[in-house]
Specification:
Radius of gyration of chain B: 31 Å
CATH superfamily of the largest domain in chain A: P-loop containing nucleotide triphosphate hydrolases
Strand content of chain B: under 5%
Shape of chain A: elongated
Strand order of the largest sheet of chain A: 6-7-8-3-9-10
CATH class of the largest domain in chain A: Alpha Beta
Strand order of the largest sheet of chain B: 1-2
Number of domains of chain B: 2
Number of helices of chain A: 9
Structural class of chain B: mainly alpha
CATH architecture of the largest domain in chain A: 3-Layer(aba) Sandwich
Largest sheet of chain B: 2 strands, antiparallel
Oligomer: heterodimer
Number of helices of chain B: 19
Largest interface: A-B, 33 and 24 residues
CATH class of the largest domain in chain B: Mainly Alpha
Number of strands of chain B: 2
Shape of chain B: extended
Amino acid sequence: MDGGMMATTQALVRFVGVQKTYDGEHLVVKSLDLDIRKGEFLTLLGPSGSGKTTTLMMLAGFEVPTHGEIFLGDRPIKNMPPHKRDIGMVFQNYALFPHLTIEENVAFPLTVRGVSKAEVKERVTAALQMIKLEHVANRHPGQLSGGQQQRVALARALVFKPALVLMDEPLGALDKRLREHMQLEIKRLHETMGITVVYVTHDQGEALTMSDRIAVFNDGIVQQIDRPDALYERPVNSFVANFIGESNVLAGTVENIEQGFCRVALAAGGAVTATAVNVGGVGSRTSLSVRPERVALLTGEGDASLNRLPATLKDLIYLGDHTLAVLATPGNTDFMVKLPAGAHAGLTQGQAVTIAFRPEDCRALDPV
Amino acid sequence: MTAAFADGAEMPLKRRLRRAERARQLRALGLVLPLFLFLVFTFVIPIGGMIWRSVEDWEVPQVLPHTVAALADWNGQDLPSETAFAALAGDLQAARAAGTVAVAAKRLNYIINGYRTILTSTARNLKTAPEPGTAKATLIGLNPAWGDRATWAAIKRASGPVTDYYLLGAVDLTRDVNGSIVATPPDQAIYRDVFGRTFAIGFGVTALCLVLGFPVAYLLANLPVAQSNLLMIFVLLPFWTSLLVRTCAWIVILQGEGIVNGALQWMGVIDEPLRLIYNRFGVYMAMTHVLLPFMILPLYSVMRSISPAYMRAAASLGAPPATAFLRIYLPQTIPGIGAGCLLVFILAIGYYITPALVGGAGDQMISAFIAFYTTETVNWGLASALGAVLLLSTLLLAVVYGKLALGRQTTGGLKN
């Protein structure tokens, strides 16, 4: 995991041993130690019910941790009411006040802070310019499109210059095209304004596009927190490997471990060499994870160090920039292989092939 | 495809559309028809009848038709001509024979107290038709009141077919002998007070309902489902008992030897029983209780639709709870407040049974007077006029509310 010195010196927010239960029986957040660095874009990613939203709500002040403490800078904020935290927040359905105009909505955080009228006017105008919506200043939220409302919600959360901005699945209600556009827009605002953003989503593509770091949540625990490329390339457990991107899984038993690599006997017969990431001792069960783009279809002999498995080609799915081959191999009847454009020439359904991958690209993780 | 072909194809299409639409419209009309007829017979016709009765003036034209005709071109300044006296004499004899003198006498007695005696005694004593040319002398001889032009002005004013007498009377106005509108003498002017009292009680009850109902509606809208369902049952409970039973229950609770006074005396808080009923306090208490659900339900339905995210957003933007409530929550409940207040107020100003049972003599509302005139004195004209004035003020209120509600929707509308 990433962290270390930098986090302790530059942490804007620290979760220390935080637990949360709603019913007194089940912990929604089991044990959370998390540092959020000043100026970073941190995404909390996970399936629904994984505890990511609860974590965000505890940070915003709408939920109180059952145990542990949260620090904002040096101040403990566990029992500080939300309106005193100076944390901007963008809600899932925007929560723009329907009875106020766009201008009044954006001015709201300034007027409740007693900012002078002239300054409110100036800052609201600047904020509306930033999101390129000056022309709708006098309209009501109901007259705006979803994307426009989203931008207003952003402007409203940023106009009082909070050190930290929280976003709770802010793009969930938008269509795909608009969502991708807004991802870039939010990213641009983050970079130009130098704010710290904590972003909650269940969309891994969104998380990979936008984040400096991603914390993958599951079952109330942070499974892994890392840069997007590290998460994808080097998942530390099966959940992360399967949740982020596509992954082919093969079950097996560890036969020996040597210099970071292990020999795994596959449950369905055969054996492969894999990078030992998250395995017990010899004889323990493991799940192997291989990314589809790290697998080749062999026609000749190839490198002797490669792992090889016999397979039958079930299907070819043409996707333009690449072709997806679905194969049946012992232990996995839906083994995916991404072929570069043009590489599928000469392949036919039902054909017997050999799949091959390097031990470095095959990670031995905890059994699923 | 050519234009001619398109034009040719257009007509049958339009006709087909009309036919299809017509069938649909007929079906819709058929479904609405029973309700429409119901409304016509139970609402439009009675209300129209009421309004008509408040201006209708039939008694005198029916009983004294020739007199009315003879007075048609009377200038109102001097005594009428001999013709009018003769016509009256003839009408009175005919009316006495038909037994309808009392009908006209009752109507004319509204205008001048004692008119009943003038008319009935004259009719009784007029044994034979006066000789031509002597009608004036004969009638004045029978009753000197016929020499007073006010006596004749009363007949003129009541000669129909419509009159503003009742409507003016309902707001304490009348016409003097010259026909100009003047205030009713103070000893007879009561309706402005009664309307004022009715509206005051209406406003008071509405305000009490709002103050008491708002927190309850908020709880209903924000509690977990199981608890809010239970609370809703308590709110609706009053609907399941009759109005009379509920009002009588208040009598039991609030009377001199009632539960409240008993408990207070037992605790030594008071020595003498407090007067809690048969006064304004009792009226407010009982009416607020009865009308509270009508405030809570519209408020609840509006509050239900206000997402808790707004209050969270306000807090996250730095608004303390009181500010968030006043600037974000409260403005969004205004449609509910408006609907609830309108409903409670309109129901309250029409209340009759509750003030009659738990109020004192000085707490009776306008409905009590309407009931009095319809059932006790059978003065339909005045009862209808009071009802019409009540209806008019209610309508005005609804229009004002409609304008306000509509104004809110369109402010900041599509003006950009």
